[in-house]
Design a protein that fits this description.
By secondary structure, the protein is α/β, with parallel strands linked by helices. The protein has 15 helices and 33 strands. The structure holds (2S,3S,4S,5R)-3,4,5-trihydroxy-6-oxo-oxane-2-carboxylic acid (GCB).
Length: about 700
Amino acid sequence: MFGFLICTTPSDEFLDLKNDSAARDLYEEKFLTVVWCLMYQPFPKMRWTIRIWNLLATGLVSLCLAMESSDNNWGGLYPRESESREMRSLDGLWNFRLAPLQDPDQGFREEWFAQPLDMTGPVISMAVPSSYNDVTQDKTLRDHIGWAWYDRTFFVPTRWQTDKKRVVLRLGSAHYRSIIYLNGKLLTSHEGGHLPIMADMTTNLVYGKENRITVAINNTLTPETIPQGSIVYTNYPTMYPPGYFIQTYNFDFTNYAGLHRPVYIYTTPQTYVDDILISTDIDGTNGIIKYSIQHVSTLTGRRQAKGVLCSIKLLNKTGVHVASGVGCQGTIVVTNAQLWWPYLMSQDPGYLYTLLVMVSDAEGNLDVYPQKVGIRTLGWNSTTLTINNKPVYLRGCGKHEDADILGRGVIYPLIVKDFSLLKWLGANSFRTSHYPYAEEIMDMADKEGIMVIDESPAVGLSGFGEVLMKKHISVMKELIRRDKNRPSVIMWSVANEPESKQLASKDYFRAIVSATKSADSSRPVTGTIKHFSRKEHAVVNFDVIMVNRFFSWYINIGHLELIKQQTVKDVSEWHLLHNKPVMISEYGADSLAGFHMDPTWAWTEEYQAALMVQNFEAFDILRAKGYFVGEMIWNFADFSTPQGNFRAGRNRKGVFTRNRQPKMAAHVLRCRYHQLANVTLADNQNAFCYGSVLSDVMLN
Ligand code: GCB
């Protein structure tokens, strides 16, 4: 709930906190405990002003909750042009204003949505898509918590009305909670920051005239949002101004906010393809495509009753028509199929067919949706992951959607650069740590043959109550609805590092995994774990175990010689206990680009590279045991974190800088990944390849 109040008085530890890590850890643990315990502290302790704002916010949130899920019944298809569909981008510069921190509901009280935003107060130009935090010089904007308001105008042609087009608004995401108005009237609302929002706007539009869309977004995280956070209010008047509060959360990346992804309006006919479900298999050299088409009609009465026909046409990569089918469900066989293979597993990785999905009604409406299809099959057992019946070893990266200025905003140059770097490394996979990534990124993964572990935004969960569980299940369903047809997606990751020492996590994750499997049984389900195997309760529910391990960084820093022993023992135990495939989903060390020391020293490029080499040796021992299915470096690139004495301005575990320039670690990883793929580097970068000599040098 937005109205959450947490009242806390700084303790002596807080005031006298020493700048040493043990004290800090103790403090962090204590401080967080205080936060969680005091969450329900009774009202009399609060200031009246705070109480009023929070009551207002609570009322508003109840209203939002009542409205939420109203847009949740759509199929999930990304907007694509075809002979029956038109698209318009609403990206560009929008008007923008923050609601005051101490009066979060001003915009609702004064109905900022009822007229153009620039009529109710000053506005600035805001780039869409982008996070709003880092695009100006204004610290208030960077650090804002609460509601932010966007609006812009647009036209739709009268032709769309004459042709009886259905018109849909689609936002790739809005972080975290959003309320959307069209021409001053409520259109829809959504909770959750990383999945699309869609609303039919046909009847609310004015055709041939100016329309206005207004979006209110709130980035507040609470114990019942996914991910969770807390708003901490203080009642220590000599230390803090009245009403002062801080947002805390249990993850280290910046909680960027805004309209992060493209915004489109698009048309369909009145009878249209709402969703498509594809599953593929292989039979010898043939590919099998099973499809099911869900269609919807806004026609009414007798016209609707006349029935709808479905058909499909399959085109190969060069547009040649290779197979057809009739009916809303069916199976087609593609002779001598080109399979979808991961990068460096074939000469033509990421091979995609186009399935033209067509529905028509007796009125003559025809809708055509071009759906990309990769023909591949996945398999898994207690030791192995397979793709097209061949064992696959994941060589990848944990990533973030993160860049200078943009924050979490999606732009094509960055997508192209990141995939170019992944391929330069020889990587075949990444994890969408710690939330679902933009569809534009996922499209590229499909196309380039990069396998994806598709992760939900459930990072650092604790508490594991009913409300959280329901939300988590609905996030998994939304994610699967969006990404179910993507050949690149090889696993669903339900969570990153839940507090799974808590016994309640066992039943909680049983429910989450079971809901995930009933939404899609064709992919294994996983999640990452930070605890040791004997103190943990969630993993029993997973098909594949992902372990995050920072030996010689968060544990025994400076003692690289311990990594091999500790990693081998740890991973072996996981397999022994659960008889499931295991992979390392995070390992690594921070390094400051350009900081060098020999012998190695923490935070240098040398230390980061040497730590990786020690891990490689452990991974090779584990690979030989037959159940170790992958390694993913933490992280692809340095990324933004909240300010703290714990991070040097950013999380610096990137093998690339935030500007995507390689550190020494990137060259070492490049060598490793190409060796794993049995590819000799053409440009002779072997100086960076580890071997026994280099590894000894790096350990000194
Ligand atoms: C982790 C988290 C990741 C952090 C990383 C770190 O285990 O999953 O989000 O960034 O540790 O660098 O501390």
